[in-house]
């Protein structure tokens, strides 16, 4: 695996090193020792999948509040998505900055989003499926979100979403200095 830093402190693109032969491809996608060596979460008690029918589906920007903030390792297992990490940590050197990576099921790359950052994505084609490894179990009462189009962040989405949940469309504008 190769870990590449991004514009958000602690957020890394994780590329796999493919072992190809006449049967196909084998690649390691996670290793607790390597992740710990890079000071990334190395224990993931919960995994999720997200299946998205149509190009232009936007989910986000979501995070889990204290006392159980979650780090996430996210990958596309089918299709391509514009995946975004947004720094909501007031003490961070990259507070309110965002970083994006195109996650591609063919490239098998992943995005590590540290706790305290919001996460969201926009699908770039029909029939995209994502796999999440979560460093905390889900606690509904701690689920939070900020607007994907909040001018406070200026996330440069490649195009406007076509499908978005009522919840995400109704998220409030962000108030500086807070993790709501
Ligand atoms: C995350 C989660 C959700 N749920 C329930 C709550 C809702 O009834 C339903 C869908 O949840 P939600 O609308 O939050 O799902 P998404 O909009 O796809 O949000 C997800 O995608 C964005 C981009 C993320 O980064 C979040 O990790 C994740 O919340 O599943 C659970 O039961 N367990 C869980 O771990």
Describe the structure in your own words.
A hairpin with a 6-residue loop joins strand 1 and strand 2. The radius of gyration is 16 Å and the shape is globular. The protein has a six-stranded antiparallel β-sheet with strand order 1-2-10-7-12-5, with no helix packed on it. Strands 6, 8, 9, 11, 13 and 14 form a six-stranded mixed β-sheet that branches. It has a two-stranded antiparallel ribbon with strand order 3-4. The protein is mostly beta strands and 180 residues long. The site of dTDP-4-keto-6-deoxyglucose (T46) has 11 residues, from strand 5, strand 6 and strand 11.
Summarize the structure.
With 180 residues, the chain is mostly beta strands. The chain has helices spanning 32-37, 166-169, and strands at 2-5, 12-15, 19-21, 24-26, 46-52, 57-64, 72-78, 80-87, 98-104, 110-113, 117-123, 128-134, 143-145, 163-164.
């Amino acid at each position: 695996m190769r870990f590449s830093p991004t514009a958000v402190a602690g957020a890394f693109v994780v590329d796999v090193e493919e072992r190809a032969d006449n049967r196909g491809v084998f690649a390691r996608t996670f290793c607790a020792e390597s992740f710990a060596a890079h000071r990334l979460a190395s224990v993931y008690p919960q995994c999720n999948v997200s299946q998205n029918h149509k190009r232009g589906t936007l989910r986000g920007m979501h995070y889990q509040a204290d006392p159980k903030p979650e780090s996430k390792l996210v990958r596309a297992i089918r299709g391509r998505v514009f995946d975004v990490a947004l720094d909501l940590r007031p003490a961070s050197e990259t507070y309110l900055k965002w970083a994006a990576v195109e996650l591609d099921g063919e490239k098998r790359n992943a995005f590590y989003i540290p706790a305290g950052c919001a996460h969201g994505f926009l699908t770039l084609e029909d029939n995209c499926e994502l796999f999440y490894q979560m460093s905390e179990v889900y606690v509904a009462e701690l689920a939070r979100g900020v607007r994907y189009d909040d001018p406070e962040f200026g996330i440069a989405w490649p195009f406007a979403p076509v499908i978005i949940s009522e919840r995400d469309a109704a998220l409030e504008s962000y108030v500086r200095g807070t993790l709501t």
